[in-house]
Write a structure and sequence with these properties.
The chain is mainly β and 235 residues long. It is built from 3 helices and 11 strands, in the order ααβαββββββββββ. It has a single domain, classed as Porin (Beta Barrel), CATH 2.40.160.20. 11% of the residues lie in helices and 61% in strands.
């Protein structure tokens, strides 16, 4: 599916390049550096089998603690005045403390763990600028494919309910899964080289967990909203 989607995206880019021959001799590119805030979905927006939802049945933690800072960068190529294609890479990582909701240790201390999620998305997008690149204010919308490299871990103290003993352990899984990306934003040029703006990105994806790893769920939701400030350098 990924190869088919990626192939379709590059086919669109090839058509664009053919349709704007006058721009080919003057193709301009830009690099965008972005700093933002990533917000994961709430419990009622996560799918059945999501490991976080399953963990909430016996662990105390706040899903909002997985929200946090994110960084990313994009390389963009212009096609005429209204279209551009880009490749981007991002990074966000969070570690959230949790404890058993109904059990404590024999000395009445909490039985605690850390839930950790790291996501490194690689995105390939096409953007449309309805007012063109010559406008003093440049809104845009876009969509594309996201390739999400992720790592999920649960580390700390756990209960073996076969004999009620407490042990230290670490459960880890990682992988790469494909999803979709939708974005919109606005930027304001400062001369011909620099531009600053704000961008809203929705990434949609799920990681498939290995059932032999011992997790309660079989997926980890990689979706969420990214709100970021952008600085673009055009060359």
């Amino acid at each position: 599916m990924f190869r088919k989607t990626l192939g379709s995206l590059f086919a669109v880019l090839a058509v664009l390049a053919t349709d704007v021959p006058s721009a080919q001799a003057q193709v301009r590119q830009s690099v965008s550096l972005n700093l933002g805030y990533f917000a994961t979905p709430p419990e009622d927006a996560r799918g059945v089998g999501d490991v976080m939802v399953e963990n909430l049945n016996f662990l105390l933690f706040d899903l909002r603690d997985f929200n946090g800072a994110a960084v990313s960068g994009d390389w963009l190529v212009e096609f005429g005045d209204f279209l551009e294609a880009g490749v981007g890479v991002g990074y966000h990582k969070r570690s959230v403390p949790s404890v058993y909701s109904d059990f404590v240790d024999s000395d009445n201390t909490e039985i605690s763990q850390d839930l950790k999620l790291r996501v490194t998305p690689l995105t390939m997008t096409v953007r449309f600028l309805p007012f063109g690149r010559r406008s003093a204010v440049q809104p845009y919308v876009g969509a594309g494919v996201g390739v999400y490299n992720w790592r999920y871990a649960e580390t700390g103290e756990f209960i073996d309910f076969s004999d009620d003993s407490i042990f230290r352990g670490s459960y880890v899984d990682k992988g790469t899964d494909v999803g979709s990306v939708f974005l919109g934003g606005v930027r304001v040029p400062v001369g011909d080289v620099l531009a600053a703006g704000i961008e809203f990105v929705y990434q949609n994806g799920k990681g498939t967990l290995d059932s032999s790893k011992g997790f309660l769920g079989d997926t980890v939701d990689l979706s969420g909203w990214l709100t970021q400030f952008t600085v673009r350098v055009r060359f």
